[in-house]
Amino acid sequence: MPFAVEMYFDPATEAEIRALWNSLAQAGVSSRLPDSGSRPHISLAVFQSLDPARFRAELQAPSRANS
Fold this sequence. Notes:
Strand order of the largest sheet: 1-2
Structural class: alpha+beta
Number of domains: 1
Order of helices and strands: EHHEH
Strand content: 15-25%
Number of strands: 2
Radius of gyration: 17 Å
């Protein structure tokens, strides 16, 4: 099963991005983004397979080291 690690925007930034998507769609560039139902995001990584428990521990390790 594929996994993606994504970073989402705050509500105000997300609204601005959606407005840009809609402007592009109205200009005839593409309606794929507003029609996709996806939230605006930045993909940090994509994996074809992943052990969620191990990945969670790896993500938390740096924060434990700085405590």
